[in-house]
Structures are given as C-alpha cells and as structure tokens.
Amino acid sequence: MNEKDCIMLQYVAEEQSLTKAAERLYITQPALTYRLHQMEKEFGVPIIVKNAKGTRLTPEGEYLAQYSKKMLDELGRMKEYIANMRNEVKGNLRIGVASYFGLYKLPPLLKQFRDMYSEVQMNVTCGLSTEIIELLIREEIQVGVVRGEYPWFEGKHLLHDEHICLVSQKELAMEELPSLPQICYKQPRFYAGSYAPLPFGETVSAWWHERFHEPPLVTMQVDSYETCKEMVKHGLGYTIIPGIFVSPEDRLHKVELFRKNGQPMKRHTWMLYKEHSLQLATVDRFVSFMKEQHRQ
Fold first, then answer.
1. Distance from C-alpha of 69 to C-alpha of 11, rounded to nearest angstrom
2. Tens-place pLDDT, residues 154-206
3. Of residues 169, 152, 267, 260, the one with CA closest to residue 212
4. Radius of gyration of the chain (CA)
5. I want to staple 131 with a disulfide (CB 3.0 to 4.6 A). Which of 127, 201, 264, 290 is the partner?
6. b/e per residue, 129-167, with b = 16+ CB within 10 A?
7. Other C-beta atoms lying within 10 Å of the C-beta of residue 237
8. Residue 254: what pLDDT?
9. What is the pTM of this model?
10. C-alpha distances in angstroms, 271 versus 20, 122, 169, 259?
C-alpha cells in the first residue's frame, strides 16, 4: 500500500461515494474501483460495500483507512524533518487558533509570513480554545493560539490582552447595577480534560462579589460575546465582555473594569507550542515571527 493508496482510502472514507472520491483523485470511477478490488485481493478481505445510500467501508476497510491516516501523518512529519535538516523554511505549517483570533487577527499575519516564506503551506484550524489545546497535545497542530488562562508548561508567549469592560447603551451608575438587567455571557459546554481554563464567568463573579452583596439581575444568558453586544444595542440590558468586541461604530458606552486592588480585569491571548517542535525551521521561524509582531 503506497501513499496514493492511503490518500485514496482517506477520500473514500470521507466521501462515502466512489464518484466523489474519484473526482477528488482526478481519476475515473472505474479506475478507482479497480484499484480497490486489487487491494482487496492483496489483503484477502472486502474493503468496500455498496448500498442504496452509496458506498461505505467495511470494518476491515475502516481499519485500513485509519492505518493509512497514520501513515500519511508520519510521512508528512518525515518530509518536514528532512527539509529542516537543511534548515529550509518550507513544507506544512499546522496552526490552530481560537475562532476570534482566526477571524480578525490571523489573516494579515499569515499574509506577511507567506510573503517572507513562499514555500510554506499553511494548514489552519479554528475552534474553541480547549479544542486547540487538545490538537496541540496530540501534535495534530504545531502552534496554537488560545484565549484565556490554561495550565500549559511548555512554550508559551503572550500575544496581547484586552480589558474586560462593562458595556451599556448609556452611562450607568455602578451602585445601581444589581437592580438593572444583565445579559450574561456563559461559556459553551465542552469537554476540557485536564486543560480546563479559568472560566470567564468566575473572573466576572470575583469582581462582582468585591462590590456587591446581592447577585446580578441576570435576564439572559448567551454563549457569544457578539450576541451579548447586540442585545445591549437593542436596549435589553448591560453586559460584561472583553472590550475588543466593541468598536466606536457600535456607539455603546464602555467602562474598563478593575479589581479593588487596582489590578485591571483583562483577557489574555497566548501562543502555545511544544519546545521540541522548534527543531523544525518552519515552526521556529513562525514562532519567532509571532513574537516579533507581538512585542509587549
């Protein structure tokens, strides 16, 4: 089973259709079917089975597809290390970023890095910060960008931070907050394993309990900062979110929050990586580039 066979099995597994898999491989369906039959003879087991909904892999075929994915991953790593033995900045760079950073911050950075190193191929995954952490642990990505505080004990660099702010349609008296409707940001539920962050809500609660002896009047709970802001714009209450989500065009009142000891309430964005990945010239250059672009 060679590299082309591994790719073929991946496409068949993903598409569950010989026609679509053949299109992605730029070959005809009969040619794909012939090669699958040859593999069935080689291994002595059925690999695919057809039904009314299309084509699916047999249990043996699924095992071969999983094995082929491991082979492709190992082959990719081998090619990267071979290239980096000559200190060449080329090959694949696998990055995982929190969705907000991927949408608003990453594109111009990748454009600049790509202009510097045109032979680097970018593979970018966006998701929840906890998902990015898990990908980094499994080494499915080489560099991760996450928002929030995580127990990470390898390479870590602060890219930037932003104030946590009270956001409202108009200026509010702080002492009146307990009687005013609050639109509360609530983090989505997810499995975080041992890499659970300090929840944003706990940070806000600590600030609240320093000032008030009664709970906030929460009238809505939403799982998006942007949605919190839109609710405020429509006069449904005030919210407490990172100030970076509010622009002058929103025409909202924004107050930066501080703890009683004078410490500003902030949300941090971190770049994370494993130290041994810096042996790859491409990863090392990208990490250095990000540090240079985000000097404190």
1. 11
2. 999 999 888 999 999 999 999 999 999 999 988 766 544 444 545 677 888 88
3. 260
4. 25
5. 127
6. bbbbbbbbeeeebbbbbbbbbbebeebeeebebbbbbbb
7. 20
8. 93
9. 0.63
10. 38, 17, 34, 26
The DSSP letter of residue 261 is T
Distance of CA 22 to the CA centre of its chain: 30
Of 95, 90, 193, nearest to 140 by C-alpha is 95
Query: Are 3-84 and 163-266 equal in CATH topology?
Result: no
- Encoded tokens for 288: 């250095």
What does the angle CA 59 – CA 137 – CA 158 come to, to the nearest 5 degrees?
Answer: 150
Residue type, 38: Q
Q: What SS3 state is found at 181?
A: strand
CATH of 89-160+269-293, one of 1.20.210.10, 3.40.190.10, 3.10.620.30, 3.30.1160.10: 3.40.190.10
Q: Give yes or no for a contact between 97 and 144, defined as CB atoms under 8 angstroms apart.
A: yes
Cβ atoms of 183 and 236 within 8 Å: the answer is yes
Residues in the chain: 296
Amino acid, single-letter form, for residue 132: I
What type of residue is 23?
Answer: E
